[in-house]
Give the backbone structure.
Amino acid sequence: MRALHSMGLCLCFFLERESVVVGYVPKGGIISRQRLSFFWDSMGNSTLKEKIRHLLEAMITALLLGTQTILNAGWFISVMSIPLLPYLVYLLKGQAYLEREIQVLFFDKTFMVGRIIALLGFLVFLLAGTQLLWNLTKGEGPIQTGTYSIVRHPQFAGIIIITMGLTVMVLTLGGNQLQITGLWLIQVLGYIGIARYEEMHLLKRFGESFRQYKRDVPFMFPIKCPSRIPETLFTILIVALICCFLLFFPYDLIRIR
């Protein structure tokens, strides 16, 4: 710490609304700030912010996905359920019996219905992700074709369908339906928040063209929102209906033996 003070320099780097600010800490410890206009001239006013924002969005999405409850076979006599994040730690430590895990997750007929739902979601996510990567390589504006002509956030729609399928698999096994469904609800509300945050920036960047796209294409589910209901509220109502279905569905009907 003394060495830093003797040098008289310490950088405090963070983002503001329109600029990057650096704090200079002299030997006396007094902090001053100045705008680095030359930094934005060389980097581009939005490039760094966009990268940081997308990184944070990806991290939050991954953390939300980590709360998803999935089946865990392992060395246990009977199949159990466990949140995804500890399950991944369990796998990385080499404590999983992979042959049994793969058998239960991908081939056990007991969980066939939930597996089909999850695979459909993975297909949607794969198509949307491929289209997004292709668009990034071309450097064009917001995508409005393909899966993005059905809903504005097909990648999140795919994740929601995947996690719903995994949730159905766990509920088919049995357990605390309220807790399992509640965890799924928290995830989906998080995805809705991230998507809304992303759209705030897209509106600032693309203006009227994106506003028209919003009017023409549904948000996250392929159901047009009534004009009198706020779109976010309408989306949450759809999720609430799905949660009611997950809570009260008789899973014995789809438990194949």
About this structure: The chain is about 60% helix and 10% strand. The first helix runs from residue 2 to 7. Residues 1-43 have pLDDT under 50 and may be disordered. The chain has two domains: 1-44, 46-253.
